[in-house]
Here is the input.
Amino acid sequence: MELLQQKRFWIFDLDGTLTKPVHDFAHIRDVLGLAPDADILRAIEEQPEAIKRTMLAQLDRLERHYAALAEPSEGVIALLARLQNAGCCLGILTRNTKEFAELSLSAIGAASFFKSIDVLGRDEAAPKPSPEGINILLNQWGADKTQSVMVGDFHFDLLSGRLANVTTVHVDASPRHWPEDTDIRVDNLFELSDMLGY
Ligand SMILES: [Mg+2]
Here is the structure.
């Protein structure tokens, strides 16, 4: 697709996008005592300080567990290698922590594609759907927004891209869809790879 052929700056969500989805968010909410539809990070943020610390420690344990289980999405290494060989800048923007993001990247064999400074977790930028993390990465790269893409599997990924004014790609084989915030929708990373002009 013509829209993707000139893109040089690529920001990816990690969990469920570059990795197969392993996070059982219903279980996480249950362990933390949150409502079934709660925004986990926001709900923790709203707690009194002492409870918040306990919940963050619980969340850390759960996320460490899931990071070790991370498995690569089909086609992820081929896609990243292709982008890297074409000289593209590659970044990660996750609502997880940077530490666990780097653990997951190692677990799927993709750590070498990302400089540490280009992996942003929830402590390096306001969590998605805030566009802050995208803007930080684009500034680091001196990137032009018209050449930049945000790729993810969830609404927050697409919304952050929309708010940052970059092209958004939704990767998802399920019927979930957020058309108002999606520029391009693909079922998987092979399909995305096929759209590249390089
Ligand atoms: Mg995700």
